[in-house]
Amino acid sequence: MSERTNTNTEKKKPPLNGRRAVPSNNSNDEENEVPEMEAFGLIPRGFNPKDYLRVVDIQMFKEPHETNKQQHHTDKYYSPKLIVRRGQPFQIQIDFNRPYRPETDQFWLEYLIGRYPQQNKGTYIPILIGDVLKPGEWGAKITHKENNSVRLSIMSSATCIIGKFRLYIAVWTPFGILRTHRNPATDTYILFNPWCQQDAVYLDDEKEREEYVLNDVGIVFHGNINDIKLRSWSYGQFEENILDACLFLMDKAELELSGRGNPIKICRVASAVINSRDDDGVIAGSWDNTYTYGVPPSAWTGSVDILLEYYSSKQPVRYGQCWVFAGVFNTFLRCLGIPARLVTNYSSAHDNNANLQLDFFLDDEGKLDTKLTKDSVWNYHCWNEAWMTRPDLPVGFGGWQVVDGTPQETSDGMYRCGPASVQAIKHGHVCFQFDAPFVYAEVNGDIVYSRREKNGTQVIENIDTTHIGQLIVTKKVGSDGMMEITEEYKFQEGSEEERLALETAVMYGVKKQTAQDPAYQPQTDVDMVFQVQKAVLGSDFKVTITFRNKSRNYYTATTYLSGNIVFYTGVTKSEFKKHSFSAKLEPSSSSAFDVLIKSSEYMNDLLDQASFHFFVTARINETGKILAMQKAAVLEIPTLQVKTKGETVAGKEMSVTVEFINPLKQALENVTLRLEGPGVLRTMKKEFRQIPMNSTLIWEVKCIPKQPGLRKLIASLNCDALRHVYGDLTVQIQKP
Question: What is any one GO biological process for this UniProt entry (predicted)?
Fold first, then answer.
């Protein structure tokens, strides 16, 4: 029998390759066996371990109200274990079987992580008891002795690995080392520390730390540049099991444990594992309006459900679009202690060949040729910024770094993006890793309209240099308002600095085709603009096209309006409106023309973000020149009312209602409502078969809030005919 068990354990060992003596150590979950008695040689017969100093109990002071979690800003984590931040001392107490005698007794601590702990990799950390703690280096000193107990202050290294460590206490005897047995209750999580000056993620502003590390709800800005919409998102980084789920993501990405103290490496691998492309990561993206066997991206109200489902099933969660990838990524970063924020770039370029220009091809009538046009302008695109130093780059490129988990293009063979220094993007220094040219193009491209002549030659008809990256925003610190950060990414349009940054980017290999095509001579004496009237979903609205003829000539313009229903990524699903007319342009005057859009024309094909894209092209018949312009428009979507009834006290039952009035000229079928609020209630779902037109739906939920303080409830409504319906409510939960 003993032989068989032996061969079994042999099989379990992973295969070694010739290059390493120890297999790669890339799972925080796996453990090794640690001997409780490590003999120095033969043990004499009379040896009794009980004669020596023995550990009876270890107290971790790990309750949320106790000093460790209070001082380390980890009291919000819903976890029974000790969670501390690196580079800052924490306290534990060891109870021995008799008083500790420093002259003769010797004990030390051992922190281990992973299956193959090694001291030189930082995965096995022996800590001797000393007299002083050096800042930012591993050490321990005794702060208090009483009866059989010893109180220790322990300092962790400001560069140590982030993850869950196992703790052993070792006692020296003349014949061998005695260790405590494996006790999961003493496991210690060590996180990044934005409060510690030696930590790579140190952030010096307390208000910013409260927002970018400790705030568990946030705002996603969406819609488009002319109609900015916002909704709440629950990050929930402190909810039960989320910390373990985030550590599992690094195991899934097979990030070597020794690299897990480095925020640059963590961000790089996380941007790949957040999406499911090429590594079965967390979220499967879907942009085609069919969400069979999954949750539509617009239905999610936060990250917790997604991360917990992935942690238990190990299969990609369906489905996400950019704000879902960014929301989950933000939870991951804040949970580990890396300051992070979710950013929206309006009119974001998805430039397939990174040549800093988006090519829109027109046919000979001036209509858009959808087969030839491969680049697209996203109404908006969300990514994240993470705060850290960049010792791998020259001085000055630390601070906010762009990371993006949405799968757009591959980087080093995988769908990932970043970290790219925002400062480097602004100044055009796109040679600095990672993926700066791609992000530079997202915020700086030009739109070039060109037309193919009958003989096959391309003629540039129009260049729009200001459409892309017009507005870049994030949530304000300490409030739900919007903060513009466009100038963090780019200089003023048309300024000398902007020109210089562009030349720098081109010098570092960003391809830029010149607009100085000798054949390109646009019509400069006529301006064309158009406005889309704000409209509620299901109503008629108009598009107004205005020409300003600045010349003394009399012109006629053959004008073509194309109305398209688009995904928010700017990709067209269908053209629902075609309208041509001839406009007479009097000398030195302006003329406006209205085109009516009826709800019956667009309702059948509408996609979940209620997004339109209008193209207007006008040919000046007298000169043959073409004016071209495009604009996205979003309809007003109805909202949900979230209310509470009665008192809201921690630990007492409270009542929440969600109300909705169906404004459409049709009944809504198979409607799903979701409601969540970190610290107040776990996500609840409810299905409704039908909501007749103009009727009101009321859903009441009972819950028991866990934590006092200012909390947010977030609700969403979803069905095939109507998506992106949200509501939220901020509630003050009283102390009991």
Answer: blood coagulation, fibrin clot formation
